[in-house]
Every structure is written in C-alpha cells, then in structure tokens.
Amino acid sequence: MTARPAATRSGPAAPALEITGLTVRHPGTPPAVDGVSLRLAAGAALTLVGESGSGKTTLARAVLALPAPGTTTTGSVRVDGTDLSGLGARELSRIRGRRIGYVPQDPTTSLDPLRRIGSQITEVLLRHRAAPGRRAARAAVPAVLARAGLTDPHRIARSRPHELSGGQRQRAAIALAVCCGPRLLVADEPTTALDPLLRVRILDLFTALRTETGLALLLITHDLAAARRIGGTVAVLRAGRIAETGPAADVLHRPSHPYTADLARLPAVAADPGARP
C-alpha cells in the first residue's frame, strides 16, 4: 500500500480555492497563465472572463491538476487548504469528484455514451465512498438528478445520454459533478452549446446549488451575460494575466481597464433575460 502524500491544510476557515502566483508555460511560447493569484470563499462565485486564447481553460486545467502535456507549472493551487502540487496521481484522483467537481462545455465528454445515467452516478458515488454500498448509491440517484433540475429523475436514470435532450445531458453532467458534494465546482463554458433560455436556467441552477450546498463556483466563460447572471466576483484574464478583478457589478458596468471595456462593447453571446444587476 502506498503512503498517502502529505497535504497542507490551513484549518476550517481555508478558502474553497486559493491560487497563488500560478504560471503555466508551454515550451517555446510566452506563459499561457502568468503569475495569477485568486481566492474563492466557500459558497461564493468567481467568473473568469476573457477572449479565446486568454488562458482561461489553461487555468481551469491547472485547478483540476490536469495540465496539458509538455507544460510546466509553478505557483500553488489549494483546494480547501490542500496544496495540489504535492499530491500523487492516486490522491488527485480522489480529490477530483469528491472535493472538486467539473462541468465541461460538452457534456458528452463526461458522460459514457454506452451506460445509463443512473449507473454512471452510482459508480461515482461508490468510487468516492459517498454511499455505504451499491444499494444506497442506487437509491440516492433520483435525488441527485432532481437536485440538478431534472423533472423525471427515474426516467433519466434509466436513459443513456443519446436519449436525452442537450439541456438534459448538461444537467446530467452537472449531477455527476456534484453528486459527491464537492467543495468546489469548476464549470468551463458550460452553456455555450445551449439556447438562450436554457443558458439562463443552467446558470440559475449553479446559483441554487451554491445556496443549497455551500459549494464554491469557478465559472469559465467569454460571455459577459453569463457573468452578469452569476454575479459574485469577476476576474478578467488577458494574455494569461489578470487585467481586472472585483464585484461583478463594478467590473462589468464600470470597468477600469480598457480591455474590459472593449469586451463589454462586444455583442452578447447569449440573450440575458432578467439578468441580475
């Protein structure tokens, strides 16, 4: 049995996510992420915005401890006080899913096309010991799906991904990401492929999950309408560096950096009915 790697914790008041001096480099190119420091409290929301190529997804991969091949990473990423850089593959695998949930842009990348949704959630619950046994894990599935806003959870549990609509697949992927009660949820462009109304509903689901469970949300997007809907804190990433950060209302309505002002003038990617101020 291999020894458990040492984990550094800063006590019960540790933030859900703390990034300090994070730099990610690809060989022969300027840093994709350059000296980024961010902090996200439990139950809070942080939206990282920027145009394509600004380093958003690279930063998300670093938070998940899944760097692209060939990259070098310096600085630190702590989740719930645990420094991920000192952990081995087995410990990181335990943390992903149990303490960090991940929602990708395309839900088919996290859902097995050949297996029923209920079976996939059952296996995740068992893998991370979030249920005492298979019977309990199966019994928990409908409630997990209902929490993700799926109105017919028993039918969804029996369905395979291709039998669901796009919105249902995204909600199933969210259910899979949060079924073990993670401390942090990383959502990378989770609404891009959805129509405007579904985008708003998925964003509101994230807010409801934060309120109900206390998880922290790191939302990666280039859509300022989504950032306005989520509220909380917004950090603007430009060429791998933080150009501006602050409360969403201040950054999006009264930007202090010219780059943020340019982003705000671009046409919205999605309609934003009932956007929060």
Automatic annotation (TrEMBL):
Query: Where primarily located?
Result: membrane
Location(s) in or outside the cell:
Cell membrane
- Bilayer topology annotation: Peripheral membrane protein
Residues in domain ABC transporter? 17-264
- List each coiled-coil range: none
Entry-linked Pfam families: ABC_tran
> What SMART domains does the entry give?
AAA
Keywords assigned: ATP-binding, Cell membrane, Membrane, Nucleotide-binding, Transport
Show the GO MF annotations. Answer: ATP binding
Which InterPro entries does UniProt cross-reference here?
AAA+_ATPase (IPR003593), ABC_Ni/Peptide_Import (IPR050388), ABC_transporter-like_ATP-bd (IPR003439), ABC_transporter-like_CS (IPR017871), P-loop_NTPase (IPR027417)
The UniProt family comment states:
Belongs to the ABC transporter superfamily.
Q: Indicate what this protein is called per its UniProt record.
A: ABC transporter ATP-binding protein
Per the UniProt record, the source organism is Streptomyces yaizuensis
The uppermost taxa in this organism's lineage are:
Bacteria, Bacillati, Actinomycetota, Actinomycetes, Kitasatosporales
